[in-house]
Design goal:
The chain has one domain: TIM Barrel. Helix content is 50%, strand content 9%. It contains 16 helices and 9 strands. It has a 6-stranded parallel beta sheet. The protein has a 3-stranded parallel beta sheet with strand order 1-2-3. The structure holds manganese (II) ion (MN).
Length: 355
């Protein structure tokens, strides 16, 4: 089915936090899951999806590995014209360094092949291995210059390490130089923080992902990443992992913490935490089809920094497209949300006119 057979509407729907997994990556995951010392968060995340007999898990696995007919069929059924696709969490970040550095380009090449097969429908994000920041920087450059991708996906922490550590900053240097936003996507929590969430069944997308990814984003702010890389853009899903709602308290308490010199890690910044959120971040609504939260986020961020996302296949819920469609929103804001902001941020070529 081609894009021209989709119902006409005054904009393209571009979903910006959609996931895939090469079958080859699942083979590597199986070997990791077989190890006696497998990371508890990884076991709870991909161990569940890959091994559960539940219909939901098996359906998600079928969708994850498909970059052709099944995916396009689901996009058509939901009225999604374009998917912006990232390597599903935790990507290569759970692998040992050598395997991760070797596999990221394999995954990117497979995604680039799919983009060539479906140029109007699929847009890729560049997967990188933060385990080797220099190699990651080179892969960003290759992704932009050779694969025609213009964004990066990083699945939050890498085996308990955060990008606030300056050893990772060659990645930010490359992203800023090449004007590639980084989608900071959730990962399962590191072992050091997950236990209290698991015992309550709250470690996953229901809550834990947002807590951990929100922490990661705040660590970038307080570490001064955006003073060092003022043009860097980070994308957060799930309505900004609730950070817009925190903005007032973050500003107040950051100023108070700096003043009291309570932590060596909290130093004065050039701007307020909320300024960085508004100027160095974009937010998608992935997984949150809820009008009041979307309106608040658009008010806080400005309508040009809030984008549509479905979170396919983990939250394939076509009725949510309709909910969002029917929200009380000015036509130009709706078009910015579904189309314009994504085209600008991910450098997506305009649709060819249908004849
Ligand atoms: Mn997601």
């Amino acid at each position: 089915m081609s894009a021209t057979s989709l119902p006409q509407r005054p904009y393209r729907r571009i979903a910006t936090e959609e996931a895939f997994s090469p079958p080859q990556m699942l083979e590597i995951y199986r070997r990791i899951l077989d190890k006696p010392d497998v990371d508890v968060g990884f076991k709870h995340l991909m161990g569940f999806y890959m091994q559960s007999p539940s219909e939901r898990a098996q359906h998600i696995m079928r969708c994850l590995v498909d970059l052709d007919d099944l995916r396009l069929q689901h996009m058509d059924e939901a009225g999604v014209d374009v998917q912006v696709i990232g390597l599903t969490s935790p990507g290569v970040q759970i692998m040992d360094k050598d395997t991760a550095v070797a596999f990221a380009p394999v995954a990117n090449d497979l995604l680039a092949d799919a983009m060539r097969r479906h140029p109007d429908r699929l847009v890729g994000m560049i997967a990188v291995a933060p385990q080797d920041p220099q190699a990651a920087a080179r892969e960003i450059e290759r992704g932009v210059q050779q694969l025609g991708m213009h964004s990066v996906v990083i699945n939050s922490h890498t085996q308990g390490e955060y990008l606030s550590d300056p050893k990772f900053w060659p990645i930010f240097e490359a992203a800023q130089a090449l004007d590639t936003p980084i989608y900071l996507h959730p990962n399962a929590m590191p072992a050091s923080m997950i236990q209290h969430f698991i015992e309550a069944g709250l470690d996953g997308a229901i809550y834990g992902f947002g807590v951990e990814t929100g922490l990661h984003a705040l660590r970038l702010i307080t570490a001064g990443v955006f003073d060092r890389f003022p043009k860097l853009q980070i994308i957060l899903g799930h309505m900004g992992e609730a950070l817009p709602f925190w903005a007032y308290r973050l500003d107040y308490m950051h100023a108070a913490t700096v003043k009291s010199q309570r932590y060596p890690s909290v130093q004065p910044l050039q701007r307020k935490p909320s300024d960085y959120l508004r100027e160095n971040f974009h937010i998608t609504n992935s997984g949150v089809a809820w009008g009041p939260a979307l309106k608040f986020t658009q008010d806080f961020m400005g309508p040009d920094r809030v984008l549509y996302a479905m979170d396919y296949p983990y939250q394939y819920a076509p009725q949510e497209v309709e909910i969002l469609e029917n929200l009380d929103m000015a036509p130009q804001v709706r078009k910015a949300f579904f189309q314009d902001n994504a085209e600008r941020l991910f450098k997506i070529a305009p649709a060819k006119p249908s004849i």
